[in-house]
Amino acid sequence: MSFLARLFGEKKKSAEIAKNRLSLLIAHERSGGGPTADFLPALQRELIEVISKYVSVNADDIKVHLDKQDNVEVLEVNIVLPEQNR
User: Fold this and answer.
1) pTM of this structure
2) What is the CA radius of gyration of the chain?
C-alpha cells in the first residue's frame, strides 16, 4: 500500500461495494432473516442513484424482482437503457 493510499485511504470501486451489498443480502437470508423482500425498494433506489451518475434513466426503467423457486432465490434486475444517438 502506498503512502498516499494509507494517508487518504483508498476509494472503493462501485463493483466492490455492490459485491459487498449482495453478500450481506445473501447472509441475511441464510441466517433466518426470512424470505421478506423489504430490501427491494431500497435496492431499486440505490441502483437508480448509481446508474444515474453514468446514464440518464427514468425510475420506471429499472425493475427489481425477487423470485423463489424451491430452495433457490433469484434476484432479477432489468434496466432499460436509452438508445444512443449516432
Assistant:
1) 0.47
2) 17
Higher pLDDT: 86 or 45? It is: 45
- CA distances 45 to 17, 51, 58, 75, 82, Å, are 15, 10, 11, 15, 18
Residue pair 62/79 in contact (Cβ under 8 Å)? The answer is yes
Which of residues 52 and 27 earns the better pLDDT score? 52
Q: Give the integer Cα–Cα distance in Å for 77 and 66.
A: 9
Provide long-range contacts, Cβ within 8 A and 24+ apart, for 13-16. 14/50
Which one, of 77, 70, 73, lies nearest residue 25 by Cα? Answer: 73
